[in-house]
User: Fold these one by one.
Assistant:
Number 1:
Amino acid sequence: AQSVTQLDSHVSVSEGTPVLLRCNYSSSYSPSLFWYVQHPNKGLQLLLKYTSAATLVKGINGFEAEFKKSETSFHLTKPSAHMSDAAEYFCVVMEYGGATNKLIFGTGTLLAVQP
Amino acid sequence: EAGVAQSPRYKIIEKRQSVAFWCNPISGHATLYWYQQILGQGPKLLIQFQNNGVVDDSQLPKDRFSAERLKGVDSTLKIQPAKLEDSAVYLCASSIGRLYEQYFGPGTRLTVT
């Protein structure tokens, strides 16, 4: 079974400083991995996805993630945090099952950005 | 393009009552998903439709939850009777096909008292 573990439930950074949200995955095959963001009272939005192409994946709003097979990690980073980045972030792995597929979500990391 | 629409946005009911949620996916999206997101957890897939057929309902509590997608467009999710542990946000998502990006609606926040 596929799974993801988000290592921090809360992360707080100052505006303008780097962001690091950590995610480890468990997969019996080459995984498809995603990061989603959820702002309060809004739907989940896809930030970026890894599907076995380049290991460094660039997403929207300046975010990027690096797939490291040796470490089974897919950490999300951003060089400089903005107030609008405050939200909940989910690391997600896709589980394939013949005719079906499902997204397996982590428990989420709440990012706070201090002025 | 219009996104995934859900209604109502909020609902408060007493335990043992019934409730229904509605989802209108993005036009042309064949695959529709219902997720349950309990406070402090990530969303969990309840049911997946391909057009108007169910392809995965393995995590749907079928003794109280039901869902349908008539004509392969809109979908409704029903809970009858509701329990306290059903308090959650119910998210609807749609995609062009099962391997494509899923687009999520804003969700319906259900509180069962």
Note: The first strand of chain A starts at residue 3 and ends at 6.
Number 2:
Amino acid sequence: AQKITQTQPGMFVQEKEAVTLDCTYDTSDQSYGLFWYKQPSSGEMIFLIYQGSYDEQNATEGRYSLNFQKARKSANLVISASQLGDSAMYFCAMREITNSGYALNFGKGTSLLVTP
Amino acid sequence: GAGVSQTPSNKVTEKGKYVELRCDPISGHTALYWYRQSLGQGPEFLIYFQGTGAADDSGLPNDRFFAVRPEGSVSTLKIQRTERGDSAVYLCASSPAVSGANVLTFGAGSRLTVL
């Protein structure tokens, strides 16, 4: 069963505007972590932001913030003041702490295009 | 090293051949992960190591796939009797330890093309 759902295959945003990339997840664990990664056309996966399930505050990292709504099981990424260099694939991922493996399960991604 | 290094960056092989993909993690990182990413998809978990042992190999698709990490550092992903469906980018990642907040640092990947 798909544990991470990213419903937006592609998004457009104008430079300097904010954009929200959606992510919902499915878990029965109480303890888990949520991650966002960026993958530009070069192919490298770049870590952006992390949110723990027990964190009360929404995570922020520079222009990135994570809108964490635990009851809705959503962890949307907000990019403020978009830049042309933000054009890339964005992946949401979850680690379930109590499950074996500690591996990240990734969604299918959202392609973001920032236009001038 | 400074980052996760993967070799080769590109590998073209014929159906039925054997291939090895190498991953050199960040020095001191005890956890190492292999993922496979097909075109237009997110990374798909294959296997992870804690030290020398495979702690979870539940993502390996079949017994043609095998991975080792004999000294707890470099890892090799081995694919026997390659099939066209094995064509993908194989990503390796490492992290300092296994815990909830530990961030995986990825290599640039090895692109495998099976003709």
Note: The first strand of chain A starts at residue 4 and ends at 5.
